Amino acid sequence: MGSRSTLAGLEVPNPAAIQDYCSSISIGEPPTYIIWRIHKHLPHILELLEFCANKEFPKVGLQGLRIIFREALSPLIFLCKNEVFCGIENAYPYLLYALTVSGIANLLRLRTIASYASGSVIQPDDLLDYGLGVLRPITSAAATPSGCLVIGRNDGSLLCYQLATVIPSYPGFRQELRDDPGIGSLWGLMSRGRVSAVQDLVISMVHGKTLVFVLHTDGILRVWDFIS
Question: What residue stretches are annotated with the Nucleoporin Nup120/160 beta-propeller domain (predicted)?
Answer without folding.
Answer: 33-226
